[in-house]
Fold these 2 entries.
Entry 1:
Amino acid sequence: IAISYGWKALYNPIRKKLALVPDTILDKYLGEYTSENPPIKITISKNGKDLQLTARRPEKMYALKENSFFLASSPNDECIFTSSNKDDFFDTLEVIQNGKTIIKAVRKRP
């Protein structure tokens, strides 16, 4: 309605510039991550060419950078993949909200 009537002050969509991440990089994030606080299991999988995060229900992940993503349901939260050993195995997924880590989940090394 705000768009139809030109009420710009009432409609401020969040705009983000998306990045293209090669499949070879996306594949490095796949797997099961677990968090102790809060206790949660997060599965990162692929749906076609897109990453998908499943905690309660599957959600498409949108890339901001090579290792940084967001979900449409939480566009202000940032999901960041890192490697604790600074190698090619990404074993940590952090969800950052307002600059604070609210979830830190890890996956076991093979």
Entry 2:
Amino acid sequence: RYLTSHSTTGYTANVPLENALAPNSLVTWQYDGRPLPREHGGPVRDIIDPETLYFWKSAKFLSGFELTAEDQPGFWERLGYNNRGDIWSEERFWADSDFHTRRDVIRSQE
């Protein structure tokens, strides 16, 4: 089972439900008692299991969630980023892609 976070910008981020339900995952609309600023993803964003997953697995400008039985790669995963994104295993890119750095991903879009 999986959770896909949807952004008002069209961005999507997919994670296994177990990561979405981790005790350190959250949905936030404020910081230090004040509304979350736009530069940090306001008015609402999620932060998904930040001790395990890279931050591209979290969505700014949150518009909704989708629960699915099957995994659906999100925005960056469709561009070659690793589908799991585990920081401790340094899972940054798909093993079978030609991408080794973020610059490679950006150049592929030119």
